[in-house]
Specification:
By secondary structure, the protein is of the alpha/beta class. A hairpin with an 8-residue loop joins strand 12 and strand 13.
Length: about 325
């Protein structure tokens, strides 16, 4: 077994730096280890929760390595023990996202799976706002840590504006916009689970639900209807939009299959139809092979701001790409 001291030493070094950095920015959910040592290809996220202390999320990253199941479980257990000891927490405060071997088309593949535990929700703070996270019940926690700087940008630009959040997930962008002074917002997502989660996030931050609406709908259908209503004079446009689609989705409730590489030109064009002349669109994707369509770039000004929007605690600088899109010539 590779010497665990290398993992422990790097983790301690990262924690010393990042804890100071996080406290300066009122950040209480952040990444402390991201495959820094090649022999230990795991990710560790720290959640400093309100009233329930520190919790960790431990994720494996598939490298193609082959171990038998017992050997692999022992390896994971040792790494989790080191992480728990570093943060002085008990093992039940570490949410582990295991690899699961599944056979697809006759070939073995490795996939992440949720732990299946139905733990209570936790609350973390970010930039003066509060968010519900759940580390055990879902693959995602309810708060995408890599979008923290983009959320701050949206909050800074929201005052006095009408905000639209598409593929809104748990509506963390909406919390920043509403608390930043947006006069109204619509947050659109197809999932009942995430729409309910979003409503709880808004209540947690005392946001007026009569002005900030959570809409459960297929984003494609919603955009078609919204653009048609806008063109007919039956609805207002918007001043600030976040468009952060999943890389791929084939939900049964959707009308078709979402593929961000194929579908982003249509989605962006619809957003531009709704966007006011001085409005701003933030478009992001996690697809590493993504290429922005050259034709859609002719419709507006696109400034890639990924270097600004990937946070300091993410060693992986390609975790997402983000563009600031405007009708005019003013960059972010």
């Amino acid at each position: 077994m590779t010497d665990l001291a290398h993992f422990h030493n790097r983790l301690v070094k990262n924690v010393r730096h990042l804890r100071k950095w996080a406290r300066r920015g009122d950040v209480h959910a952040y990444r402390v280890y991201d495959r820094d040592v090649p022999e230990f290809p795991v990710i560790v996220d720290c959640f400093e929760t309100e009233g329930d202390g520190t919790h960790l999320q431990f994720q494996e990253v598939d490298t193609g390595w082959r171990q038998d199941e017992a050997e692999h479980r022992e390896w994971v257990d040792h790494l989790v023990e080191v992480a728990a000891e570093t943060f002085a927490v008990t093992g039940d405060r570490v949410a582990i996202k295991h690899r699961a071997r599944q056979r697809v088309g006759g070939d073995k593949t490795l996939q992440h799976e949720a732990s299946g535990l139905d733990e209570d929700d936790l609350v973390v703070r970010e930039g003066g706002h509060r968010f519900i996270v759940n580390l055990h019940g879902y693959l995602d926690t309810g708060l995408f840590l890599d979008h923290r700087p983009t959320r701050a940008l949206v909050g800074e630009r929201a005052r006095g504006r009408r905000f639209l959040n598409l593929f809104s997930y748990t509506s963390s962008f909406t919390v920043h916009a509403a608390c930043g002074g947006a006069v109204s917002s619509e947050s659109v997502d197809l999932s009942n689970t995430y729409s309910n989660w979003a409503e709880r996030n808004l209540r947690l931050n005392a946001i007026d639900s009569s002005r900030h609406r959570i809409v459960r709908a297929d984003v494609f259908a919603w955009l078609r209807d919204a653009v048609a209503a806008f063109e007919a004079g039956d609805r207002d446009g918007v001043d600030l939009i976040v468009l952060d689609p999943p890389t791929f989705s084939n939900s049964k409730a959707m009308q078709g299959v979402l593929d961000v590489q194929r579908d982003h030109p249509w989605l962006i064009r619809q957003c531009l139809q709704l966007l006011s002349p001085a409005g701003e669109l933030f478009f992001s994707t996690n697809l590493r092979s993504f290429e922005l369509d050259p034709l859609v770039q002719q419709k507006a000004r696109f400034d890639e701001i990924s270097a600004r929007t990937v946070p300091e605690d993410f060693r992986d600088r390609r975790i997402h790409r983000c563009w600031h899109v405007t009708h005019g010539a003013t960059a972010a």
